[in-house]
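hey so i finaly got around to running the thing on Intermembrane transport protein PqiB from Paraburkholderia phenoliruptrix. pasting the sequence first so u can double check i didnt mess up the copy paste, my clipboard has been acting weird all day
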Amino acid sequence: MHIPDLPHPEIKPRSRWLPSLVWLIPLISALIGIALLVKSVTAEGPIVTVTFNSAEGLEAGKTKVKYKDVEIGAVRSIALSDDLRQVRVEIQFDKAAAKFATEGSRFWVVRPRIGASGISGLGTLLSGAYIGADIGRSPRGRTDFTGLETAPIVTADQQGHQYTLRGDSLGSLDIGAPVFYRRIQVGQVVGFALDPKGSGVIVNVFVNAPYDRYVATHTRWWHASGVDLRLDSGGLTLNTQSLATVVMGGLAFESPPGSDAGPQAADGSTFTLASDETDAMREPDGAPLYVVMHFNQSLRGLSVGAPVDLRGITLGQVTKIGLGYDEKALNFSMEVTMALYPDRLSRRSNTMLPAPNTQGANDLLQHLVMHGLRGQLRTGNLLTGQLYVALDMFPQAPRATVDLRNTPIDLPTVPNTLDELQVQIAGIARKLNQVPFDKIGANLSGTLESANRLFGQLNTEVVPQARSTLASAQKTFDAAQATLGQDSPMQADVHGAMQELTRTLQSLNALADYLERHPEALVFGKKGDRQ
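ok and heres what it spat out for the 3d tokens, dont ask me to read them lol
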């Protein structure tokens, strides 16, 4: 069967190419993805790295970064540092929060905390921990930060001034401790550290506006603990600021009495931190004059810091209590070193006194000592038995001089009144013990016997007219002999009275010695009798 040849098809190209509708869908999707990527990149802010000691409560992709409780970014990643001691947290900020990538910004982890300043972060119990932020004020950018372990007490937007205080001890202060002005809380402690030499502490405080205008260049600062109870030779003193200071302590400041606030202190000014208000308000004392006194009596009740008093004016305080040995007398003496401030006396004097450490001042001191200036221990408080050193004039004291070339100057002393009374009572008792009462009684008895014999002779020889008179005299002398006889009641009473007087003086001697060691017995009695 013959199959005829078929004609070949003629292929003609299309005049134009039209894409298929199927390719439109992925193309549109790609364009949308690119647009979203561009929008996401342009909407993101900078990336910063914050180093913390621990990543407790933090989770990459979930933990938020907040400023004033507004989300400004999120944790992007968490990794260990190269030395494995810390963690490095990358934070992705929103574009609107780009200013946080500047020098001075601070970051910390907000968790539930209980501290001396109160309870914070309770909201994180449900929402979880987040990173708090405080914006810096520097125009220079920065992307690497060291995180804070606790939230800062003062934020960058808080108005006020910061000051530095230098003191001997931190006391009971802690970060967040209150600062008071006239018993109104006006600020808080924001930091503290040892000074470079380790001889004191440096405390940083922040005073809120508008109270910072009351901090002047001559403002005095002091520790204002919750209960400042002092019991010394001056009596019982109780000072307090508020109940909050009982737990965490506090500071206070004021201008000196009689002066106005004055010009405001500049931000960052440095002040001296006193131990209490009394020390803070005391006028500047100038250079001290160190003197030493030797006492031949017990120093029980005298302590370092006890005042040195000149007729009611406190000239200084005791700085050291020691023991000295006199090789000539082969006896011990108690050495008391004191710091005296002559400027305190000059400020209270109506006349011009010589300047301290001058020839005029030395001549005046020598003149006063030659005319009876002495040191004496006195009881400042009968309740506590506290002693203080009194400077006073004793014109009857033995003549003495001082060697002003010695350092410290050795000033003479006199015993106190109680010691003098004890010595006088002991002397009276010794003198009474030396009286020969037995010999005196025997001599009186012999004298009466001789008089009795004389009267017997006169009774037989005198004229009868004198017999009646002699008889009356005889009766009188007989009565006197009976009264003053060896075994007479009067003789026994005299002996008994002298013995009682001796025992009384011995009791007074013991009482004076006991009162010197326990002056509080005048108020409470003996320890064994306090029931």
